[in-house]
Amino acid sequence: MNKINFFNNNRIYFYVIIAYAILFYLFLSTYKDLIPFEDKAKHILLNEAISLVDDTTSNILESMVKEDVSFLHSNSNDEELRFENEKLLSMMNSTDINSLFVVYVIKGKYFFLLDTDTKDHADLHQAFIPENNKVFSQVVKGKKKKVFIQNEVKDLSFTLLKPIVQNGETVALLVIDYTENRLTSLLNISVKALSYLLILFLAFVFAFLFYIIYTHYNKYKIYRNPQTNTFNRIYMIENYEKIDFKKYYVALADIDFFKRINNRYGQKNGDKVIIAVIKIIARRLEKCDKLIQYSGEEFLLLIAKDARNEYELRKLLDDIRIDINRAIFDIENEKVSLSISMGVLLNTGIEKSLQDVIHKADTALYESKHNGRDKVSYFDISQPKKLYREKLKDMIESDKLVCYYQPIRSLEDKTLHHYEALLRIEDGDNIIFPDKILPDLEDSYLYTNLTKRVIEYNVAKLKEDKKMRISINLSADDLVNDAILSILAQNADLADRLLIEILENKSIDYKKVELSIQKLKLFGYKICIDDFGSGYSNLNHLLKLSIDYLKIDGSIIKEIHHDKRAYSIVKTFATFCKQNDIEVIAEFIDKQDVVDILKSFGVKYGQGWYFSKAQPYEDLDKDHK
Question: Which CATH code for domain 392-619?
Answer without folding.
Answer: 3.20.20.450
